[in-house]
Fold these 2 entries.
Entry 1:
Amino acid sequence: MDSQAIATLPEHGHAEHEHSPHLHHHFATEDQQREASNFGMWLFLLTEIMFFGGMFTAYLIYRNWYYPAFVAGSHWMKIWAGTLNTTVLICSSFTMAMAVYSAETRKRKALLRYLSLTLFLGFVFLGIKAYEWHNEWVEHHVPGLNFSINDFTHVDPRYPLDKPLAPDMAEKTQSYFSLYFLLTGVHALHMLVGVSILLFLIFNAWKGAYTTGHMTFIENFGLYWHFVDIIWIFLFPLLYLISRHQ
Amino acid sequence: MSTIISLPDQSTATLPKRSYLNSEYGLKSWLLTLDHKRIGILYLIVTLFFFCIGGTMAALIRLNLLTPGGELVAADTYNKLFSIHGIIMVFFFLVPIAPAVLGNFLIPLMIGAKDVAFPRLNLLSWYLFVTGGCFELYAIIWGGMDTGWTFTTPLSTHYVNTHVVSAALGIFVAGFSSILTGVNFIVTIHRLRAPGMTWFRMPLFIWSYYATSILFVLATPVIAITLVLIVLERVIGIGVFDPAKGGDPLLFQHLFWFYSHPAVYVMILPGMGVISEVVACFSRKRVFGYTAVAFSSVAIAVFSFFVWAHHMFIMGISNYSALVFSLMTMLVAVPSAIKIFNWSSTMYKGSITFDTPMLYSFSFIGLFTIGGMTGVMLASLGMDIHLTETYFVVAHFHYVMVGGMVSAVMAGLHFWWPKITGRMYPEPLGRLAAAILFIGFNLTFFPQFIVGYLGMPRRYHSYPPEFQVLNVLSTAGASVLAIGYLLPAVYLLWSMKYGKIAGANPWQAPGLEWQVQSPPLTENFPEPPVVDFEAYDFEWLANHTKSEVQTVG
């Protein structure tokens, strides 16, 4: 067996004796602590992928089975709202990246500005999403609570080339809308969690945290925020765009 | 070859003045602790509490099956009994007992770390687990649930009128405790090993816990979302599993078993880790084929993700996929057999002592082998169609989970009890309990193989009179089994106050956790250890202790 010792802990003893207040007792160095947190965050994101994975699987299967119903369902998505939301989220990812950069370069004011911008964009996204959901409620497109197949058994005037769906296929649009609400709902829930953490970050940054060299928290939150963004990047084409025009 | 070690006499050992147990006092110091050892004990208390509930349900089930007519409880109540038994035992006992109890206590000690990577997250996991447990208790007390532990749709979403929602939410919340524990362990094992503790110097216990953590991280989120879908379907009526709305119950089965099959390995892999430690220690030999055993743990974890549909052979999956899943399932037997063979080879020409943990390990090896072999029988398609949903399946997974895992947990608990409490349990009683457990277990579950093979379906409240003899045997075995559990409960509790003082290394084992005082300090190691020896290096221990005796002398 390999007898050469691979030190996962850097040498002890003479290593920095002045303990930084951010260094927890069970880590030897700040680097080690930071690596551990980042690694943990990536693992957590992996679990998130699996969490969404179940729903994406369901989407894949049902889309295959009920293709016409999924096309008809996607015709009722407001494409301008989806596009706007995608833009908003991508911008928020940019501002978040800039926030991490500002923390790294220790600029408190810039950090506060970018975090607030991210927060603002997060709220804009949720606002637009809420508007869309409200519309779907009005249009009786919410399976289980308020659903009618009327819109799908008749020719949609905006898509005159479409054939109306047979009643049993029209029922299957509930599959599409179930998954739509599920996916966007769980995504919005993640946004809400993100926004709450952002509020907390802004409060801390305002008190002067994160710009003193210890910025693991903000780095990890950045990862989370980008992840939620990426989920949306998948949701937007799957729910709004593909096969919209056949 | 085995190595003779003479440690300084432990009979004069005294309890250390300062340890993690007496560093702080009071309920608050326990409920707000960040010490992984204390959190492990918190988990132990809660999981044992749930074990009592699940065990009581099992006792009632067996009592009801004493007579063919099922005179003790009504059919509805019986459904609730086995559902509560299954849900509690799987999600609130077997899944957390080994990872969260033994893993929390031992992983940092074994790799030479002061704590797990995220102590606060660790405590949060415990609180999530307790919260999930409260949901479950609420569901049980306010009328129970009768879906079985599998929450089969559309039964769970449309046809039953019991507390499915709170039961599912309880498992959802407790699931996050598993996920966070898994993340914590993986990061700990990657980042917090002591200098010199290379991957191939880690005890095999750590390898199997690493594999378990991978399962936690990758599989648990899937059941989380599946249970959310069940809840949403019941409460709101979205239609992902509802055929009327285009959903398919079979998708539920796929998602459910995508978690629940890997979860089966969550319930056995940690046990295998414990057995590796115990077998090596009581044979006084390095585990034969260390690398093979280490990688077989990882292999089991990987394979476990590709076998889930063997729970669904009769549910209308395609013949071709059934064929593939059958083959994959049989392949899992290979890494499992590697372990069994390697443990046997470890014992070969070792100087074996028959202490209680070793007896439990023998019990594990025998019972797990039977459980595993019948698993291969069930994996073959023709047999499965005959045997699925019968008591044969019940006996099979009880052999793995109870015969295997619970034996391993008992082995681990006895083995590390001196480390946890600083005191020894009474050895003769321990051996007696191990024997009782083995006899009681076989008497309970072996008849179920036969009765299942003869065609008695599981989950039924009554049965044809010709099956009564075997059922009475099984119930009789269950009462012996109950003694096998109660006896250790009594003497372990007794030993916490009156047990002989153990000393740092009562088993003369070479693991890092045995080189510190028992019970350990809050910070585990007074100085960060430097590892310059291989795992199970009994010779190192012998030389080490020799030089220590010389220095002291």
Entry 2:
Amino acid sequence: MEKELIHLSHISKSFGGKVILDDLDLVIHENEFVTLLGPSGCGKTTTLRILAGFETPDKGSVIFEGRDITNLPPNKRQLNTVFQNYALFTHMNVADNIAFGLKIKKQPKSYIDDKIAYALKLVGLEGFENRSVSHLSGGQQQRIAIARAIVNEPRVLLLDEPLGALDLKLRQDMQYELIRMKNELSITFLYVTHDQQEALTMSDTIVVMNQGYIQQMGSPEAIYNEPENAFVADFIGDSNLFPGVFVRDELVTIDGVPFPCVDKGFGKDVPVDIVIRPEDVELVEKERGTISGVVTEIIFKGIHYEMCVEANGREWVSLSTRPHLVGEEVGIYVDPFNIQVMNKPESEDEEAVSTT
Amino acid sequence: MKKKTNGLKKLYIGLIFVFMYAPIALLIIQSFNKSKSRGRWGGFTLQWYASLFQDASIGEAFTNTILLALLSSVISVVLGTMACICIGRMKKQTRTLMMGITNIPMLNADIVTGVSFMLLFLTLRIQFGFGTILLAHITFNIPYVILSVMPRYRELNPHIYEAALDLGASPAYAFFHTVLPEIMPAILSGGLMAFTMSIDDFIITHFTAGAGVHTLSTKIYSEVKLGIKPEMYALSAMIFITVLVLLCLVNRVQGDLDLKAKEARA
Amino acid sequence: MIIRRKTAGLLGTPYIVWAAAFIVIPLIMVVWYGLTDEHGAFTLANVAAIADPAHSKALLMALILSLIATIVCILLAYPLCLFLVQSQQNSTSFLTMLLIVPMWMNFLLRTYAWQSLLEKTGIINTALRAIGLQPLRMINTNGAIVLGMVYNFLPFMILPVYNALEKIDQNVVNAAQDLGAGRRETFTKVIFPLSLPGVVSGITMVFIPALTTFVVSSLLGGGKILLIGNVIEQEFMLAYDWNLGSGLSLVLLVFIIINVVVSALIERDEEERA
């Protein structure tokens, strides 16, 4: 792991009595692509704005390379932001927008011109210098907003739901573009989104947030495969989430039906939550399944079929390339390795609390 | 340091406020002044408020002013709203032309509008009086209605009208039950603006009133040289205070409604 | 909206007729009277009469005083609007209180009240004397007229400037700071340029009524200072020379048209940007 760049230390922030962030602690390393992921109101944008300097935390401090910058105004920070609605200066053309930060720093004209040309090339809009920004498409405005930020050579680029306003195809293209730009610039990206697909595609590290708390932090694979609690499991991808009992090491039951698993150390006969990804629910012949059920619904999704199976009064969702007829009796089998066991939250409140 | 600049900002806003209200405060104080001369305080009195109701000429000017404002704002609201429906579906070029013409009374100098009416009535040999003032007031009021209603009408979801038709409503029923309620706030605020403009107008009334008829404005203007009757201060103070109280009440009620709506949502 | 073409046309007819009869034709009458003599023969004499020293002096005076008043309005209104927008509270009711409510006190009376404040034995001079200062000659001066103009037309500057400032996206301001701009640079490079359309539209809304007023000058100028508005008013109401009055009004119309063209150009610019 590269060296530590930013430390958001015990940050709390509330607006008008409503707590947005509660004792948040987050470390970001150099040259890392970190994504803050969560539903709206989870505090992800506030976190980004505190880092950028647009909000001051009520408690806690922002440490940048070991220096406390909590009270440093935004214009003195070595980071730049790509805003949600781009926030381009409509009274300036493309070149003037990009040159804005460099002119403030009184850079020589030749340097500025080189930088503009370089930035436009990086974002794939060569020759757009003299265009009016209001005549650009959403995707192009997005690219100019990125160019305007990166010419200042920030240590960290903050991106606040930058792809939110774009249509699906463009969004997917821009995801790859952003990864490419990140690699070319080799700086830290801090990305805010509510789109789990975006987060999984681009990030080195995902920070899942809800109600002002960090729910889980880790690589996309870890977040997807080993969600630490029901919120993360539910938020990241579709999943089958069942209440169960952890009987002993390597054995759980769902509604009394035993399922072997690989997890250990939850105790004996402890109530737990069990997550099984739909693609891990295998539909087999009735006799070979751990339990059996009836197919109630089948939807063709392109690459695969999504099927609902009713078994023991519960609905299981399964993804498979092999279709089964509605009404067909099938067996359900889950590889022990694909059963994810999670502690049950002890109360409503704790549902939101980080389990780490 | 931030606190200090905040204080200075508040002071500045307060000074502008004083600037706008100092003459008004003075007029209200004047209305209680026993002395007829402006400069001197001759003791507190309510006599001007009493004699106000005996003064027939002020009463007539007041009635004219209110009647003009009411009639002109109601007529301009009806004409203006009808016009919006028509202009709203015109082709872009015709619409631009129509809106351009609509803008003329607002962009033109009042004195030029005033003399243009005067010339029209002179040429057509129309007797100057209440009727000519009313025509003029309606004309300069319609733009306020159109400029208030038009944006609202154009951003209206056209499907609500279609949905009403689809559900079997006649076009008239659909209009009065779907379109009209949606644009009502804009109509009201346009009408209120028109009412205010009509009450406050002097210049255009000056050129269209002729000899016999007075509104409060023209009466005040004719009295300026000789000294304004204290009853006029009393009347103006009453109008002003009434409006102020009404506005506060409306604000209070609206505030309450907002609060309730907020609570209901929470 | 699929209200039938015929119905819509029918609804619009009254206004179209009205606008033709009471907006367009009266203006044509002004042009007609302005370009003819009392016998109806074509002449440019009424317009050329602006060169008459008394008239050109009145026009020049009106131009100077209204320009000063416009500048003062900008200087007063801009900081006010900036502070109001920055205060981040809902300023709508405050603005109504400041700008609309005073209109319910007759504007002639309000202007007239300034006489009591400014005159020789008026309130301001009494106060000056009380603290041992020399009384000032304020009433019936150019300064008094400028003050009356500012007092009456300041709202026309505040509203567009406030709207322009309020419309500026906070994120755009944040973006400027994010890119390294301090307070002063954020203002000069972003906030002020973005609010410029509001200022220009305020200028066009203050300048014309100030230029053409005859009320402010006759109430606060004591009848000694004549502006072009006073000249026109007298031609119509005292001298009954409608041709001359119309001819001079045509001169004003030139200024008004320039004004309209400027504001239309700015509006189009803004629309293009949006």
